[in-house]
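User: My instructor asked us to take a sequence, write out its structure as tokens, and then describe one feature of it. I'm not sure where to start. Here is the sequence I was given:
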Amino acid sequence: MRTKGWQNVLAFTLVQHIKTKSFIIGTILTCVILSAVCVLTNILPVMMGADEAIEDAVENTGDTYKDFESIYVIDETGILIDVDFAEANELGAVMSKTDKDADSLVDELSVKETAEALVKLTEIKDTNGGVISYSANVYYSEGSSGESADSLSDLIYMLVDKRRMANLGVSEEDYPKTLIDVDCTALKAGSKQVDMFTSIINYIVPLILPIVLFILIFAYGSTVAQSIATEKTSRVMELLLVSVRPLAIVIGKVLAMGIVSFGQVILVSIVCGISFAVSAPFGFIGKMTSILANSDIINTAGESAAQAGVSLDEIEAAKAIGELLKNFTPLNIILIFAIFIFGFLFYSLIAALVGASISRMEDLAMAMQPYSLMGVLGMYLADFPVIFNAENLSTGVVETNPVQVFSYYFPLSSPFALPGAIILGNLGTAQALIATVILAAFVVLIAIVVSKVYEAIILHSGNRIKFGDILKMAMRK
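Assistant: Let's start with the prediction itself. The structure tokens for your sequence are:
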């Protein structure tokens, strides 16, 4: 049989690769580095005081104008009355009218070390003398901050708007109703609108995951080519061919590297999972987990959330993570692993042909160029639509463009693009299965090509066999 002895090749390659110092050290370093990344990603926000910063932001939102010791108002419009100044003082803004010249007061503020501010109110009129808008310029001293000035601007806006509504007959009780916002968003049919955190996830996952998968699949595929080329050029292949058929060699080596890659991925995943689990109670993940576990917090808002010690942003983040976790169904997990295996086989079989096509190690780099271009093209097709869609994602709109759909079904890019699409729920189960079957079919096609030409090229010595020549050999057989 043409494949007889592949088990021996598999065992030999597996043992030889696993016991090398480079593999052992590389695996340990990868586990340590990724474990540290997982831990730091979880606890770094807490270590940097992110929770306190969020709490301070929630507590201080809109009232940092209290930092001003004095707030002078030059009201050229006459819209603000004594009641408005009294309300401002009740809110903590030490505000009073002044008759001083605006320019001279601004000059004084520019050198003052105390926290003081000047508000100059003006109005813009149309040709008929009607007021079309009000303008408020806030000048703050050297001893104050822009954040406090922004907060004061919001307060002035509220006072002027409230007084304007009162002059039009809107009661104080009805004023909050005038603040209802109308948010208009244009959505293309078939797209969906998401919150900020879901939008971030929809950008990061399909952007980073293809790069990670490319590194894994491409790196292990390159190792297959390196191994075959090394043994062929060192005449070890001649000894192997005495007892094992050429096709059995490529099968054994590809499967051996598949086991190595799959095992290393599982090991790294376990280490990262343990790192997350150990650090979870002390960091961001722990807080998100507690929020997800408490449906009352998830469904609450406003003051109720603050009483629970949770900000609205944290609730939205937890909801986004919860929606993402819903897509990790048993079927989807199986599909993702299957896609990884098929992707590895697809690129590794091609790499095996590349390794067998050379007779000198000096030619390997040149022979690997078409293989490298195929991998880069596949990753580019997986990442480019996400980068292209960044503008839409920044507005909270998620839509799938034609290039992105193409990347799901094209065998060069599907190993990199499909897992992210499945995780985010951008593909239905039926679509994901169809894309996986297409990838599997191309793996079978490549395997057929390998079975036809591998025996001929592994015995070849002399100049490097080009990619086109390999395809011609497959067509003739």
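For the description part of your assignment, you could build on this observation: Strands lie at 70-75, 95-97, 116-125, 131-140, 192-193, 397-398. Try explaining in your own words what that tells you about the chain.
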